[in-house]
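Researcher: Final request for today, and then I'll write up notes for the group meeting. The sequence and the SMILES for zinc ion follow.
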Amino acid sequence: MKKMLFSIAIVLFTILLGVGNADNILITSAASTSTPTPIEIDLINGDEEKIGTATFTESSKGVKIRVKAEGLEPGTKAIHIHETGKCVAPDFTSAGGHFNPGKKEHGFENPKGFHAGDLPNIEVSAQGVVDVEIVAPGLTLKQGAENSLLDADGSALVIHEKADDYKTNPAGNAGDRIVCGVIGKE
Ligand SMILES: [Cu+2]
Ligand SMILES: [Zn+2]
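Model: Predicted protein-zinc ion complex:
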């Protein structure tokens, strides 16, 4: 009799565990098949002041990146996704090189290009404001994908002092890094 009760207890316990696991499986599959949640990050300048935000939204065309910032020098600026989610002011070299899971060279006009993290230049207005939406076809927010912005060490959005020439390896001759924002981990 004792043995039988014990067996029943084991069966019940297994059912309970099974229900728990089924829940986990449902949650996991929902996360991998549905669209990832948009991410908003802060952008900081070399003085560690918050000067804007960037929002990343998964779409059928890639990741849409909405950049809103102020207090910048007017003009055309390079903007890239860099490979490491670390923004240590003032020079932001901590963010590493361009995000490049495909092992290409830099630049849309480079025959051996381009990096997944390469993005078209942005225009900062005479008032020092930028408000743009960029679509990055080679990127995703899906966890586990090779080109995911949310890989183990995260990634970073970086704005440079000058325009990207779209051809000079490894970084488009764009000068200093003036704005940085961590995507994913720090
Ligand atoms: Cu850059
Ligand atoms: Zn590049």
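Model: Residues 2-33 form the longest helix (32 residues). The chain has two domains: 1-34, 39-183.
Researcher: Thanks, that's everything.
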